[in-house]
Amino acid sequence: MPTMDPANSNPARAEELKVLANEAFNVFSWIREAHKFAQAIDLYTQAIDLNGDNAVYWANRALAHTKLEEYGSAIIDATKAVEIDPKYSKGYYRRGAAYLAMAKFKEALKDFQQVKKLCPNDPDASKKLKECEKAVMKLKFEEAISVPESQRRSVADSVDYTTIGTGTESSYFPPKVTAVAAAVVLPAVLAVYVGTKAAIVVAAAIMATVLVFLGAWWLRSNDHVFSKNQSLDLVVEPEYAGARIEGDVVTLDFVKKMMDDFKNQKSLHRRYALQIVLQTREMLRSLPTLVDVNVPDGKHFTVCGDVHGQFYDLLNIFELNGFPSEDNPYLFNGDFVDRGSFSVEVILTLFAFKCMCPTAMYLARGNHESKSMNKIYGFEGEVRSKLSEIFVELFAEVFCCLPLAHVINNKIFVVHGGLFSVDGVKLSEISAIDRFREPPEEGLMCELLWSDPQPQLGRGPSKRGVGLSFGADVTKKFLKENNLDLVVRSHEVKDEGYEIEHDGKLITVFSAPNYCDQMGNKGAFIRFEAPSLKPNIVTFSAVPHPDVKPMAYANNFFRMFS
Length: 562
Description:
Cofactor: Mn(2+)
Protein name: protein-serine/threonine phosphatase
Organism: Coffea arabica
Family: Belongs to the PPP phosphatase family. PP-5 (PP-T) subfamily.
Oligomer: single chain
Largest sheet: 6 strands, mixed
Mean pLDDT: 86
EC number: 3.1.3.16
């Protein structure tokens, strides 16, 4: 338990600061000003400096960190709160919510079990614990029936422009998958809803027996989940009035028609969506992990940051800066999807421009182009709702093909997250990364997607709980060792849409204004003119969108804590 120097302790003043922090954290301020979260953190920090033995201050600061998506810092603060007061339920609750946001369901479950133990008669605690138990059970079952990577067959290789799934309703699951689902779901229901040890033992025995039987049945047969003899012909109905691709060529007229349909909340036929996704996959697979971009003298190149499913703000970027073309190329620097509820429209638009003209649209992977993030933050649910189940796996495969970084004219290094936990990383090492996989939790690939700059020199722990924080000395050394001039990255909300840090050697650009309809920030993009490559930063405000809330398709369990 922390102790304080009595000379520095001032509990009365600390309580005054807590009240001010709570006011800064008021729900009505959330919609207007993102910096209120940071202000609240600063005030809670001052209160902690005066009275570090108060668990409430630590837990409240944890909540403020959570609102800024600083889940690593939230876990540290909530842990301190329960160390001070092991019976303080809000400490466990807030740590569990932070673990949940990081897709660490098993760790979250332990905390919610403790909340339930401390508050046995709290119906809200009971509800959240039960939902968490379901999530962990589902995760365990998925792990149990998952196919080893070496044996996994590509979904994209099993479909074409006119085939998908099985049956007249495009059912994704053939009978064997349905049987496995039944073998998993029925024991799960028994275990979760009955809840006794005996029920869990019986459930496990039933599941093991059925899965062994089904496994032998499956192995004796030759058909595959996605085999083409089980496919659905995706004929475009005569009454379909939306955008159409003639043949294999995606044209600007098609993309404009598709965007106009999306703007009016109309859908693209799945046949054309499939074509766009598969064509984009082929293009991305052929690219290196580190892409060199050449901007001729007299030409320009635009870099955009996170879009996060905010389709109407994406349209505004094109309104301000022109459509992508060979003479007006863009790089979108990751996090195209999740959070915003128009992620399908965003990703199909970006992919369509890539198909139309590969040199007009460059795309980099962000930390949200991953299964673990998409399961929680909305993209997976949105894809199921607007397209079909098979597209969930298709997008996951395509995301694994996205390059991890770009270098513009051998001088500007562009990456979604940031730099590394070790010195001496060369561009050749980045090029050699095997990117065709889900992001790991450590190593160069993880750090490229997750790391953040910090004002202090050196390196520190990540406020997110993944990757690290790095100072100006780390940035300058990386640039010098690789004969580069500037790092451009995204990954963080900024009040003005951008921030210049590390003595001008690093720029953060974020292109989702009024992020999640509540942060009040501007968006930005950067135009680089060759040969000088001097950054011209353009900021813009959010535009109206239909009344579909952010996270509308997110995991129901996660929305309970948002």
